[in-house]
């Protein structure tokens, strides 16, 4: 038994202060519920930021964790292993891809994708074809390269000069994209639904225009599906419902249901430019992570599970409509599958954090997507009773905010 007592205050004493965690400390989870160190229960609408797609402590994942954990956790990149090869085959069978590179996170998957795109352009067309086009409000990770490519300057400012050759365009603006993509462009990276940027779906015509422009100028189209992938949109990958196929796809978050793993998927032709030693990773594709991810992919790719995501999406939107009908909170509810954003009205602009805090006080874990948007990314198999219970709690939590706001306005 560990007798070292820690509390939420310990965080402020021992951790680098890049996060501002909630006042409660989660201790254990089961399905779509979490209990804190005081034994209080919470309905989980956050899923560890769209990660625990099959909920907490899923019995089939626990079984794989124990079985593989008793065999081999890690072996290093001088060897391959059976779980990672099975995982690669599963992902390739489900997608356009025929080659996979495994990493530990979405940021690393995007780093690999961007490096591959630059490498392909360099080897095929020379050093001048190096421009990467991204979109405002996009988010692609926290490495210095990916945060510079991401379209939110607040994350890249204050760290010195950013890498050259990165252009940011307005999202969903077809004309701006057609003007900017040219002979100098090596890659365009886009989220099919901007997650951190406010849960904004891409217009299919916009994605089609990107595909056509990339083809015209021999640029690669990269889909960042770190948040939208592995069933989140109601399709295994969101691109499969757009009529557009990328050259490179990145995936992470839900891929390991909480075990850190990410992947870059691409074609044989493009993968050939990553020769031995050109890129690498120590932990990426380790047998423990790969075994868990293989089971996640098997479970989530079941058509019944994906159909269940689409069903739950409608139920969740119905709950939000009811909440809005009662309190008049939202200007728009948008997204796909179980990646849903509810934008707050002007009366509550900039106060998404207040709603998240109030939700926690009433036993609901949830997220924001910028200061004006509440984000819902629950388990893809969330029991409908848990969803109803969560919204009953949110009704109380949001009612308090609305009541306090009305009092303040009347003063």
Structure description:
With 411 residues, the protein is α/β, with parallel strands linked by helices. It folds into 2 domains: 8-57 and 303-410, Alpha-Beta Complex (Aspartate Aminotransferase, domain 1), CATH 3.90.1150; 72-300, Aspartate Aminotransferase, domain 2 (3-Layer(aba) Sandwich), CATH 3.40.640.10. It has 13 helices and 17 strands. It has helices at residues 8-14, 47-50, 59-69, 82-94, 106-125, 144-149, 174-180, 204-216, 268-271, 287-300, 303-327, 352-361, 384-410, and strands at 26-30, 33-36, 41-44, 99-103, 131-135, 166-169, 185-190, 193-194, 200-201, 220-224, 248-251, 262-266, 330-336, 339-344, 364-365, 367-368, 373-376. The protein has a 7-stranded mixed β-sheet, sandwiched between helices. The chain has a 4-stranded mixed β-sheet with strand order 1-2-3-15. A hairpin with a 2-residue loop joins strand 13 (330-336) and strand 14. Helix 3 (59-69) runs antiparallel to helix 10 and helix 11 (303-327) packs parallel to helix 13. The longest helix is centred in the last third of the chain and has 27 residues, at 384-410. It starts with 7 loop residues before the first helix and ends with a helix. Pyridoxal 5'-phosphate binds at residues 106-107, 139, 224-227, 282. This is Acetylornithine aminotransferase. N(2)-acetyl-L-ornithine binds at residues 142, 281. Homodimer. It is found in: Cytoplasm.
């Amino acid at each position: 038994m560990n007798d070292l007592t820690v509390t939420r205050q310990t965080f402020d004493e021992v951790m680098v202060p890049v996060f501002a965690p909630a006042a409660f400390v989660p201790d254990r989870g089961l399905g779509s519920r979490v209990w804190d160190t005081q034994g209080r229960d919470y309905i989980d609408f956050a899923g560890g930021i769209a990660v625990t797609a099959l909920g907490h402590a899923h019995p089939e994942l626990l079984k794989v964790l124990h079985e593989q954990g008793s065999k081999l956790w890690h072996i290093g990149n001088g060897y391959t292993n059976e779980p990672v090869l099975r995982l690669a085959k599963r992902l390739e069978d489900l997608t356009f891809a025929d080659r996979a590179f495994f990493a530990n996170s979405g940021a690393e998957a995007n780093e690999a994708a961007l490096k591959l795109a630059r490498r392909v352009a360099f080897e095929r067309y020379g050093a001048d074809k190096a421009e990467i086009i991204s979109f405002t409000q996009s988010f692609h990770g926290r490495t210095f390269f990916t945060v510079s490519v991401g379209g939110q300057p607040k994350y890249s400012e204050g760290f010195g000069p950013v890498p050259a050759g990165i252009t940011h365009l307005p999202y969903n603006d077809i004309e701006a994209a057609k003007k900017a993509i040219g002979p100098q462009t090596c890659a365009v990276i886009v989220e099919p639904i901007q997650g951190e940027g406010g849960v904004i779906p891409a217009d299919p015509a916009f994605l089609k225009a990107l595909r056509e422009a990339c083809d015209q100028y021999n640029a690669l189209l990269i889909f960042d599906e770190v948040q939208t992938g592995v069933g989140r949109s109601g399709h295994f990958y969101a691109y499969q419902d757009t009529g557009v196929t990328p050259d490179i796809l990145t995936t992470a978050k839900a891929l390991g249901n909480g075990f850190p793993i990410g992947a870059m998927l691409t074609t044989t032709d493009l993968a050939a430019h990553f020769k031995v030693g050109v890129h690498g990773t120590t932990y990426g594709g380790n047998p423990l992570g790969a075994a868990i991810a293989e089971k996640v992919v098997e479970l989530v790719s079941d058509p019944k599970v994906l159909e269940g995501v689409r069903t739950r999406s409608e139920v969740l939107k119905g709950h939000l409509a009811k909440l809005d009908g009662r309190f008049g909170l939202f200007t728009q509810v948008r997204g796909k599958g179980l990646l849903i954003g509810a934008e707050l009205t002007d009366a509550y602009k900039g106060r998404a954090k207040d709603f998240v805090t109030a939700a926690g006080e009433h036993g609901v874990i949830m997220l924001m997507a910028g200061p004006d948007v509440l984000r819902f990314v629950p388990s893809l198999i969330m029991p409908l009773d848990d969803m109803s219970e969560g919204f009953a709690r949110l009704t109380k939590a949001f009612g308090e905010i609305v009541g306090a706001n009305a009092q303040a306005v009347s003063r």
